[in-house]
Design brief:
434 Repressor (Amino-terminal Domain), 4 strands, four-stranded mixed β-sheet, 16 helices
């Protein structure tokens, strides 16, 4: 098992967001010695191993377990300012989370990618706006959503075999999607601190990367726009818009848009853009809206209507499986806490009646 040490050490350091120099200083060894550990050229003493575990917030046995999960086909959404170091940290923490998730499922006898239906769209290829509308309608029809608002996008995706990970990080990170190997399970990573309305749109945007296909000639920017439009169309179908607002309008009031935001959990800005792209409003009304938004304090970052939408978009399946496994004696509370990456006392307190 010693052969896994250097790989695990590199992963744990990336998860912690530490450079070689920063970690070396914490455990009182030279940067070169630490580099030798990561290359597998030198093995640490028992005392150094314990120091490494403490510095990286892992248990010593973590270093000697084989890595069982890799991430493929990664797509990142981020604002300017997110460094490559932070990107690698997000990827490594996601991979570590998936390792614990897969281990938990294995302990419970759940085969990977069988915990829900596997959603496959009948018309996934996107070349134009009509294709986007058709794919969004297909998505809603397959999940029997009708014209109703989606109560929880994250819950819906978890029911459809998506592994969803909430990552607490810098505000510049928006979302990430990819596949977990082996198995090819779809993975979505969201920013815990994101506004809930934005989080809903981001979750469906990332799902679009995994569900849709695009022409090879389509630019990355156009693919991102198509995924955004798909997400908006899933949250607020065209037939709902035309029923609520009509097929053609010369002017839309802010109150109408905020009303739709309140019930469908989609931003006023995304609704207005959708109205314009569907031809329900014209260019003049569209320009007037963005002149209004840009005139507000903070510009485009402030969505009209504030927090009028109330809901919850938090992954729950992993924690529910942990509670069930511990309650039924499949695993100990200590093991459950380890998989949850929590102190035992904290996990135990969560399980107890308040």
């Amino acid at each position: 098992m010693v052969q896994h040490f250097n790989t695990r050490l590199r992963s744990a350091r990336k998860i912690a967001g530490l450079t070689l120099q920063e970690l070396a200083e914490q455990i009182n060894v030279s940067k070169q010695t630490l580099s030798y550990y990561e290359q597998g050229k030198v093995s640490p003493t028992s005392a150094t191993l314990i120091a490494l575990a403490r510095a990286l917030n892992v248990k010593p046995d973590y270093f000697f377990r084989p890595q069982t999960v890799s991430l493929q086909d990664m797509k990142f959404r981020k604002e300017e300012g997110l460094s490559q170091k932070e990107i690698k940290q997000i990827q490594e923490q996601t991979r570590g989370f998936l390792e614990r998730y897969h281990e938990l499922e294995a302990l419970m006898g759940i085969e990977a990618n069988t915990h829900g239906g596997t959603l496959v769209l009948t018309s996934p290829h996107i070349a134009n706006n009509d294709d986007i509308e058709r794919a969004a309608e297909d998505f809603r029809e397959q999940l029997s959503l009708g014209d109703h608002p989606i109560r929880s996008v994250v819950e819906l995706l978890e029911e459809q075999s998506f592994y969803v990970y909430d990552y607490t990080t810098v505000k510049e990170f928006v979302g990430m999607s990819g596949r977990s190997e082996p198995g090819g399970q779809p993975v979505i990573v969201l920013n815990t601190n994101a506004d809930i309305v934005r989080k809903r749109l981001t979750a469906l945007h990332e799902a679009a990367h995994l569900l849709l296909t695009f022409p090879e000639t389509m630019s990355e920017r156009d693919e991102e726009r198509a995924c955004h439009d798909f997400a908006a169309a899933v949250l607020l179908p065209k037939r709902v818009l035309t029923r609520e607002l009509g097929e053609k309008r010369s002017r839309i009031t802010l109150g109408e848009l905020v009303h739709l935001k309140k019930y469908y959990g989609i931003s006023v800005q995304a609704i207005e853009m959708r109205l314009f792209k569907l031809g329900i409003i014209g260019a003049g009304s569209h320009r007037a809206f963005w002149d209004f938004v840009n005139a507000q304090v903070g510009g485009k970052r402030i969505d009209p209507g504030g927090d009028v939408y109330q809901g919850m978009e938090t992954p729950t399946r992993f924690k529910q499986l942990l509670f069930r496994a511990a309650a039924e004696g499949i695993i100990s509370e200590s093991k459950a806490a380890s998989l949850a990456n929590q102190p035992v006392a904290e996990f135990t307190d969560e399980m107890r009646w308040k």
